[in-house]
Amino acid sequence: MWQYLAATALLAEGALGQSLGSASFLRFGCSQLVVERVDPLVAPGLNPSPHVHQVVGGNSFNVTMDPSTIDPPVQSTCTSCIYKEDTSNYWTASMYFQSPENGTFKRVPQMANGRLNGTLLPQDGGLTIYYMLPFGGRNMKVTAFPVGFRMLAGNPMLRSKTGMAPGICHRCLAKSDRTSGGAGAPCDRSDTATFPTTPCPGGIRATIIFPSCWDGKNVDSPDHQSHVAYAPGGMALAGDRCPSTHPVRIPQVMYEIMFDTTEFNDAKYWKDGKQPLVYSFGDPTGYGAHGDYLFGWKDDALQRAMDSMGKTCGSEYCDQVLTIQDGKDAIGCTKSQQAKEDVGSGEWITELPGGTQVA
């Protein structure tokens, strides 16, 4: 997908001869920190929370993440993200295969995304993170998130497209896409809001795009969404406009999650338009895919990176502004489960963790 973003950014700015380093987005990998039933955004203080999440970022991640007592850059002793300055936390629901034969579950493994250089990691698991400027609006001021900022994209309660936010989608990858991660615009006509209904030779790429406009006042809201907004027009990828209610342009965050579903590609599991996948919160449709974000960049590092887009930063190149840690150190940053249980990693389980029902 980075190829599309790079090309779009360059076309919008009339700079076809420039390199990927001129692209108006920052892209990097974060290894898996922990997989567990903890959700300090939606269910703070609850251990365990209702469903399983895969979490990356700073190891200060805990059950509450109260912004009045926890400052991730201070409390974190490591980060699973490749940039040392980024101790933010990023998390999404895990995906499971449910056997149509006996109803048991197995967590779908993840795989590495396509990579150009050392900012994407060769490990299994984790997320690829993007921070994007507005396309065609490089001169528009982009304000980095303030301390304590957090937000949610998507709605785990959805089971149909009605009320669905833009920028939540799945792509069925061809075998040749397994290494590249797939090309083309995110959430275009090649993607579906639902899980694919046929086996995917290269696995599934899930995409979650967050809002790009902020009210300029609140670091959070009761629903974790009202303080932010997508750009006018219902498009997920933002241009250079924001609604009057949310006038401050913030970096647009996007997650890519690469699921290795190839183990479950036997045609007997995919019949009559039915598919065997389900999210950890019991969603067999895919409409409820969602992502959580908790800001944790050190000092003004993110603002400096955003200000340097198209100059010394762009795509996977920002080592003149940010510090790239050794990939082994990022992969080595892990955290023990706070909600200790078998989450179905490599073993079959009789029910989704927490007894979540598929519905």
Strand order of the largest sheet: 1-7-15-11-9-10
Using the CA coordinates, give the radius of gyration.
19 Å
Strand-residue fraction? 15-25%
Average pLDDT, all residues: 89
Distance between the termini: 32 Å
Shape: globular
Number of strands: 17
Number of helices: 5
- Largest sheet, strands/sense/barrel: 6 strands, antiparallel
Uncertain segments: 6-22
What is the count of distinct domains? 1
Order of helices and strands: HEEEHEEEEEEHEEEEEEEEHH
Query: Which class of secondary structure composition applies to the elements?
Result: mainly beta
Q: Residue share in helices?
A: under 10%
Protein name: DUF1996 domain-containing protein
Pfam families: DUF1996 (PF09362)
Region (Disordered): 177-198
Keywords: Signal
Keywords:
5 helices, 6-stranded antiparallel sheet, 359 residues, mainly beta, 21% strand, 5-stranded antiparallel sheet
